[in-house]
Design brief:
Number of domains of chain A: 4
CATH class of the largest domain in chain A: Alpha Beta
Strand content of chain A: 15-25%
Number of helices of chain A: 17
Largest sheet of chain A: 7 strands, antiparallel
CATH architecture of the largest domain in chain A: 2-Layer Sandwich
Largest interface: A-B, 95 and 95 residues
CATH topology of the largest domain in chain A: Uridine Diphospho-n-acetylenolpyruvylglucosamine Reductase, domain 3
Helix content of chain A: 25-40%
Number of strands of chain A: 18
Distance between the termini of chain A: 16 Å
Shape of chain A: globular
Oligomer: homodimer
């Protein structure tokens, strides 16, 4: 980056934004790191945008001065997506927090990119509608679209890819593009919406998101079941899905994670592979689903079924699941977490997890496993001392072997965390020649490589 | 196209394919037309491919001689997708009819592009699995992916966009690319799969398709209900979806279409707006869905509910729906059909249909309406004499106004038929500046514009 151009660009941005252009160290620091183990990389300045038009002007100034642009929502990504690897301008979209419209009859809404999922669901509360995608963090919906987020509900409601109907995007040359629309389906031209979903800011800045919504289910029930083997738990999931039971959530926690959850939340679940379920539907439908699933579980070595239908009990149960990450960290005071995820065809899930657990054991690491098991997606958290180079190297080996194994089993190097700059080599290993096509698209839409450079692809 | 290059290209293809390269008039004629009203446009030759490797060699020969390439499945598209507008080589993929693998536990399969949906479902019969997407015609799965097909089941099971997990594609420069994979979800890089789904052969030739499958439901029930108004029928659909009833099909036929169906199939349904339903699930679940829906219908002026749970009765009922097109044509012996479709937010559906019906009346046309109404998608069939220039002009006016209206109401110029060359101007009206982005992608992946030229975009 040219120092003179940088200075000129920042001056132009300051005259556009005034106080909303910050070069202060603490603001830059905050925008140069996510919640992962990746080292921070600070932008040269942070631009706080309030409208699509303002983002367009910011992008035009950056393009004119060839300055890198890094879109920033809540900074809760996990593979270094927001790190300013080559400096440049972080565009903070959190001030774009307007819910533009909610269409009850059509069950859709349009929001600015900075609206978070919890903000949206709070707003929707009285409409009887909700937005189901729940990646854990209270991420911005623009960021969730950009990273193709999903989470515990995806087995029933799909991922952001399935639930983003359209986008407003500012392209690298400062055009404002509207993709998709409000129709439930369309065969009209190339699917630009899904090209931008998961593009991690490398093709444009998402400023508005049109989303599908769902009716809040009449009845919700949850359950927890312990299994005497991981295979039994996974086989239960396979049979449940084969029978077409529309489970809303079906989460696996291994015995290491269950031990952590018990300690952290003062619970007394058996320390063995465990499934957490949630059922949505009519009261009769939920009762029927629950019964079917408990029978399947019993056939596969499941025991200690615990039901929860009251909101309070359900919340208690799921709080334990949602606290899994902090519970894992609490196993080793002072340690940091390195979360990583892969996704395999569900028939290979038990095999992939068991081989990975054997690797963790052999390398002497602490790494609880949780999984969105209905999708074949599971997460490791290496609970470690990042200053310990040897421990880091061992974790890297386990991660690398897990991804190799996943690809060999027909899976993908990340089910929901994305590539960022942490998994570029893994993406290349997985996709082979298709990387060339991604690179062609990137080069045609961002020839100067100013959009979040150093992420997804090596240019 | 250069005549010398064409001759050289055909010679090279003949030496590759022998008898499987045809320049005969009748074969060219057959490959230069679809089932729409669009005028045929013949390719210079038809290449019958048997493998991805063979397609790659054909594409390389065409690329070397700058010959247009038109992928051909079953020729059942509706907007001129297969017409060889600039001549060139039609690649017939119907010989690529191998079902490569079916994975029961994972509910997915991989097929060559020429496998048709009926062939796949026949093959799956004993596995308890099925592939739900049903556009009416027994189309090839490669063609269905290329055109982003959907149909009556989309309200529950989604479209091809939701059910294609991955593709093998031969690009314009003759590379073989594998997109997607067998994992149920992935955040790994740009979503090339969904870029190719719906690209209508303009970015590459699809040679293999990985598909999601579903368990055959334990119970299936169907029903027909007549309404005293179109608004009542549409409001029933809106309320059914708002309540989260997972209907598998919910189809609207207007009174003109019902009259046609009665005459064609010797039935005696009331000649009024009518909904055809199908419910999938457990026996108790189906019973509950049916009950809820019949109450909603009754609240909205629905009457004459007829149930069908026996396979034979259901087939009879749906046969009437599937024969709608032929029933429409039979209203006017000797006439041809011009089918067109649009898709609007469901809250605007009654308004859009009623205004369109008024237009049809004012222009003195015969055009029954059917709709995949759960998605807000409806179809007109202009039943007309295509030799009558005045009648054609009147139909064009109605179609044009319907699409204008649809776009104004937040909808899309085609829900499932695609753009082909029939709706290029409509796509431009709908997408605005996003067309520029589509063009950039097309130019970067197919700089010589040899892949199905003249479709989707004006280059």
């Amino acid at each position: 980056m040219d120092a003179v151009k940088l200075e000129q660009g920042i001056a132009a941005l300051r005259s556009l934004l005034g106080d909303r252009l910050s070069t202060g160290q603490s603001v830059r620091q905050q925008h140069g790191e996510d919640v992962s183990y990746h080292a921070p990389a600070l932008p040269d300045a942070v631009a706080f945008a309030r409208s699509t038009e303002e983002v367009r002007q910011i992008v035009r100034i950056c393009a004119a001065h060839t300055l890198p642009i890094i879109p920033y929502g809540t900074g809760t990504s996990l593979e270094g997506h927001v790190m300013a690897l080559e400096g440049g301008i972080s565009i903070d979209l959190s001030g774009m927090d307007q819910i533009i419209e909610v269409n009850d009859a059509d069950q859709d809404c349009r929001v600015q990119a900075g609206v978070t999922r919890k903000q949206l669901n709070q707003y929707l509360h009285d409409t009887g509608l909700f937005f189901p995608i729940d990646p854990g963090a209270d991420a911005s919906l623009g960021g969730m679209a950009a990273t193709s987020a999903s989470g515990t509900n995806a087995v029933r409601y799909g991922t952001m890819r399935d639930n983003v109907m359209g986008l407003t995007v500012v392209t690298a040359d400062g055009r404002v593009i509207h993709t998709g629309g409000r129709a439930r389906k369309s065969s009209a031209g190339y699917d630009l919406t899904r090209l931008f979903v998961g593009s991690e800011g490398t093709l444009g800045v998402i400023t508005e998101v049109q989303l599908r919504l769902y009716g809040i289910p009449e009845a919700i029930a949850s359950a927890v079941c312990s299994f005497d083997s991981l295979e039994g738990a996974v086989d239960s999931v396979i049979q449940t899905i084969q029978l077409g039971v529309p489970v809303a959530r079906i989460e696996l926690l291994d015995e290491v994670q269950m031990d952590a959850v018990n300690r952290y939340s003062s619970l007394d679940y058996p320390v063995s592979p465990t499934l957490f379920y949630e059922f949505h539907g009519s009261p009769a439908g939920v009762a029927e689903q629950s019964e079917t699933v408990s029978e399947i579980a019993a056939d596969n070595g499941g025991a200690n079924f615990r039901w929860a239908t009251k909101t309070e009990d359900r919340n208690h149960l799921w709080q334990a699941r949602h606290d899994a990450y902090y519970a894992a960290l609490a196993l080793r005071p002072g340690a940091k977490g390195w979360p990583t995820d892969v996704c395999v065809p569900i028939s290979r899930l038990a095999e992939c997890i068991l081989a990975t657990k054997e690797d963790i054991r052999a390398e002497g690491l602490l790494a609880p496993i949780v999984g969105h098991v209905g999708d074949g997606n599971f997460h490791l958290v290496f609970v470690m001392d990042p200053a310990d180079k040897d421990e880091l190297a061992r974790a890297e080996r386990v991660n690398h072997r897990m991804i190799e194994r996943t690809i060999r089993l027909g899976g993908t190097c990340t089910g929901e965390h994305g590539i960022g700059y942490g998994k570029i080599a893994d993406l290349e290993a997985e996709k082979g020649d298709a990387i060339g096509l991604m690179r062609q698209i990137k080069q045609s839409l961002d020839p100067d490589n100013i959009m979040n450079p150093g992420k997804i692809l090596r240019i």
